[in-house]
Amino acid sequence: MSEFTAIDITAINTIRTLAMDAVQKANSGHPGAPMGLAPVAYVLWNKFLNYDPADPMWPNRDRFVLSNGHASMLLYSLIHLAQVKNVDHHGKVLDEPSLPIDQLKQFRQLNSKTPGHPEHEYTAGVETTTGPLGQGVGNAVGMAIAQKWRAAHYGRPGFEALFDHRVYAICGDGCMMEGVASEAASLAGHLKLNNLTLIYDDNGITIDGHTNLAFSEDVPARFAAYGWNVLRVTDGNDVDGMAKAIEASKHADRPTFIALKTVIGYGSPHKADTHAAHGEPLGADEIKLTKKAYGWPEDSSFLVPDGVYDRFKQGIGARGAAAHAAWHKLMSDYKAKFPKEAAELDAVEQRGLPAGWDKDIPVFPADAKGLATRDSSGTVLNAIAKNVPWIVGGSADLNPSTKTFMKFPEAGVFSAKTPGGRNVHFGVREHGMGAIMNGMALSGLRSYGSGFLIFSDYGRPPIRLAAIMNLPVLYVFTHDSIGVGEDGPTHQPIEQLMSLRAIPHLIVIRPGDANEVAEAYKYALQEKHHPVVFAMTRQPLPTLDRTKYAPASGLAKGGYALNDVPHPDLLLIATGSEVALALEAGEKLAAEGIKARVVSLPSWELFEKQDPAYRDSVIPPTVTARVCVEMGGAFGWERYAGRTGAVIGMRSFGASAPLKDLLKHFGFTVEAVVKAAKEQVGKK
Amino acid sequence: MSEFTAIDITAINTIRTLAMDAVQKANSGHPGAPMGLAPVAYVLWNKFLNYDPADPMWPNRDRFVLSNGHASMLLYSLIHLAQVKNVDHHGKVLDEPSLPIDQLKQFRQLNSKTPGHPEHEYTAGVETTTGPLGQGVGNAVGMAIAQKWRAAHYGRPGFEALFDHRVYAICGDGCMMEGVASEAASLAGHLKLNNLTLIYDDNGITIDGHTNLAFSEDVPARFAAYGWNVLRVTDGNDVDGMAKAIEASKHADRPTFIALKTVIGYGSPHKADTHAAHGEPLGADEIKLTKKAYGWPEDSSFLVPDGVYDRFKQGIGARGAAAHAAWHKLMSDYKAKFPKEAAELDAVEQRGLPAGWDKDIPVFPADAKGLATRDSSGTVLNAIAKNVPWIVGGSADLNPSTKTFMKFPEAGVFSAKTPGGRNVHFGVREHGMGAIMNGMALSGLRSYGSGFLIFSDYGRPPIRLAAIMNLPVLYVFTHDSIGVGEDGPTHQPIEQLMSLRAIPHLIVIRPGDANEVAEAYKYALQEKHHPVVFAMTRQPLPTLDRTKYAPASGLAKGGYALNDVPHPDLLLIATGSEVALALEAGEKLAAEGIKARVVSLPSWELFEKQDPAYRDSVIPPTVTARVCVEMGGAFGWERYAGRTGAVIGMRSFGASAPLKDLLKHFGFTVEAVVKAAKEQVGKK
């Protein structure tokens, strides 16, 4: 006998009609997917999700990810009906609903909490920002990794229940076609993340029409090939069948994929099972007919029938409250027994850092031969990570090159057998890596990822989403210029630096020597709300003599004058590997009586955050003789070169050759900088 | 009994030793994969490939794609040993080898024809530029689509053999992990591209170490799920087994995936089967030991033993010459019988256009209400495409939104059953789409793809590769600003325009009205060597009255003054949807006695190609009062605003709301432009 009764069906139809009504009122949105998915989402939330609506910040809550974010009204309806509480910007839970019914009526309006796609940073109860397809699958994998890690690292005998949450995600056909989801799913199977349940909304419809226009693969078989536990539910209204499948997923030894056949726009007499239900309002008449089909008052609008709120209270509400209370009780015992660990867990939730996190960061001695910033980066990362246990990350199969492996013995490798390990082998999956990093960060880990800067292109969407979500993820990109050398143009970044700088809210840092690297890490670790991208060299750079030049701590301001030239004839502005080049040119010029101020400008974003007085003190507007040097695209440097300044940068793709030949070929030489400088001074 | 004899093994070991020697001499590169793959590559080239080394431009040649491009020495060795001829920049075959042995000795050196990764544009015999992993799989799928289309469109009874080439590709573990290959493979299975054979170098080693660190999925089972014919060869030296598998692939009704177990660095006593063989020279001592293991003279270098060149001549050389000669004979009959089609095929090879290709491009009448540029784009695309049969393309599941469907009856849909169709349903696979478009273009088609501008991020790597390869692919990106409206920040491009402008060799065009759209298409179709990206609006724009304003043909110069203001007080510079806004502001200013020149700047790249005199005539350096308006990121506009000009652009992510609210919220109003203009004039 089914455990579901008439009120459950009413609750399901409430979700459907709220979605229809909100989209209709906004005259914009996607009603069809919420209508098809309402049963499974209801079953999941009200029968399974360990989630306390009274505290959406509870660390051990089950996570729910709606990867097909265009079905946002499904999630908003659930948040409303479950009466999830609101949270302020500091993460404090407020005694008010996250989404009162008025917010549903403000769907897709300016400043509402119900934007077109679910946005984590705006709406309590939304675990991650989705919309760009496939990303949510990666986020869910990241959250599952974070749970495994947290349980392994902080779990103690008798306290397993503190860290035993699961991750549930729903995705659509679009997610299944996107490579990012393929990458993440392959890794999830490899890691045997049995705390993850992915429900595939197999409705057979996309924007273009039926999926058979472009998509006829056997998706469940593909997930089986990834090593997932694959289950099928053939009727999107079979609430018992889906409950059984979800229950089974909790006991699997692998991640579970539930292929659920649904009907898009279910109940709509004329639009069900067509792409007309996908991305536009059903229309007033069709809504009436659909409500009639549900046995709903045809002229009702935003109706929540009696008993529906109560049903959610009895379900997710009561279950979540009890679980939460039991957790609190157990947590107080844990705190008493393991005060250090408990304090760390608090810090994790606050994006904080343990005392002394920076105590082992080295100061690098001046050294003309120097070392590559990828190498100093590896040293600094290790020095910090050993003091911050929840730094967890890795590379897209480039550890030997990016030097981002945590080498201290207790770091270990994250694997199915060693889920407390901190080095993640993401594989050659830059896009999946980024989406997974976001999920890890959403679950409190300080996640980092690395690769060659050129391959930031493979994973731009999750970098952007981290910026939208204010997530402090860290990217350590190395091989940051034609300094790559022999690998040639396909591997030499040109436009990548500038393209990353163009992303709002993202902080890009290209340190000029080992001590700037140390400062870059200091900044990045203390950053709570912005993703940070490092650009590190493959080739060695001199470590500057800081008794001669300004201290590297200037990095925190984004740009600073290295040499003391109060009234310069010209400015030499450089980043990263070109700082030493500019300094050398500056010395040559000085010998000829030309006073050049050399500015290290490792981060445009941090520099632009300084007050104008500081910026003008470093780059005086009156000094228009300027040479900017960066071994990336010249495009964009007009900002600092001004209309008349010179830019020594790349204006084409690179070439395959030893670096010394490339430097000469593309003009990154002291002679070229000196020549440009003289021309600038001559112009004045 | 094997058809392979001792000389074949010698030839295989020649490939291996050339790769070892070249990497050693360069002191940089990847010896291991060529050593493992030499047998299958040899079998494929010398026993199967229908390829005439005397004419690498022969249209019906079988295509070979090395998706794991870091194994470039494998390909260079084959090109050398098969004595493929050189080709000049105009595609003319020269009577000299593409890669004499000296070029192998110049591996990875400046200006050599043997760069670190294979580059189509430098080296005759290299069908596509590879290196960024997974791309080659997509290219191969595109080439397979192009062959199917060509055969269906130009094939005639009795002339099938003119268009019957196959596509062979080799890929590695990295390619198999990248989502782009997953996307392309899924579509290839859907389209039943039985002209495609993909050989998977399953060597179990990546840069980080054994693939079991991150990759334990059942790759063959995954390809079976995509609908591929899956074959296995368990010994990378089993030349008979691989010949059998390749032969079988020629008779399949689906694309064939051959999983081939190889040993990376085969023969190296200490480095075989380890990641030490992957990305660095073996070392002089290890090379000696390896050569000894092959029965090779230990102190030889770049040795091609007697009989090896001849073996290639007897194999690929003789087979290719015969096939090519037969093809020419048949082609002359075809020319006689089907002169129009034959002329078109010539044009396809030349990236030409048929006479009258532009005759149906409409002139749009002035219209204050106007239409979205995505709509005028759809009209113009259709007007051109019906006259250019080899325009083949589609969208990533966004046809109803991007308006890029070719609607004329003879266009049809490209599918397994209708391979002469021209509308390709790429599915929700932006990255795969781009890689496939490149493959189609490499096989002569004028390929286009479309999607929302925001999702250009999902497919940046193939856009960049198109620019590197000088391929004239066309991207029609729509929904090009916060004009997207209710879908909100995840769907509203901000930094995308500028990030695309930052890519070298790429032409970005954001037309300001319907007639600029027509001009944009005219330009793009005639462009033979650069990829072109269009940015089109979702929302309607007025069609400008060209009796009042300068003709839209100014677009070809990238930027032009719309109104006739010889001595302006200030410049209003705008693109796309903001052109009309600037014009309206200009009129308001004129009414107040302020003379504003309004400049439409649809393409920065085309504008920068003009001579300085023209540029200065449009944007006079002396007029420093400037307001630049673009509904994208402000970042980068310093180029035209100058140090003191104003930029009205986005400085954050967007928001979900109806467009009219967003315009006000983010300051894209006539009032805001007028205000900024007055401030600028006041400053002067």
UniProtKB/TrEMBL annotation, chains A, B:
Substrate binds at residues 30, 278, 374, 401, 479, 487, 491, 538. Keywords: Magnesium, Metal-binding, Thiamine pyrophosphate, Transferase. Residues 371-543 form the Transketolase-like pyrimidine-binding domain. GO terms for biological process: pentose-phosphate shunt, non-oxidative branch. The record marks 30, 278 as: Important for catalytic activity. Its cofactor is thiamine diphosphate; Mg(2+); Ca(2+); Co(2+). It comes from the Bacteria. The keyword Metal-binding applies. Binds 1 thiamine pyrophosphate per subunit. During the reaction, the substrate forms a covalent intermediate with the cofactor. Binds 1 Mg(2+) ion per subunit. Can also utilize other divalent metal cations, such as Ca(2+), Mn(2+) and Co(2+). GO terms for molecular function: metal ion binding; transketolase activity. It catalyses: D-sedoheptulose 7-phosphate + D-glyceraldehyde 3-phosphate = aldehydo-D-ribose 5-phosphate + D-xylulose 5-phosphate. Mg(2+) binds at residues 173, 203, 205. Thiamine diphosphate binds at residues 70, 131-133, 174, 203, 278, 455. InterPro entries: THDP-binding (IPR029061), Transketo_C/PFOR_II (IPR009014), Transketolase-like_C_2 (IPR055152), Transketolase-like_Pyr-bd (IPR005475), Transketolase_bac-like (IPR005478), Transketolase_CS (IPR049557), Transketolase_fam (IPR033247), Transketolase_N (IPR005474). One of its GO terms (cellular component) is cytosol. The keyword Magnesium applies. It is an enzyme of class 2 (transferase). Belongs to the transketolase family. Homodimer. This is Transketolase. It comes from Frigoriglobus tundricola.
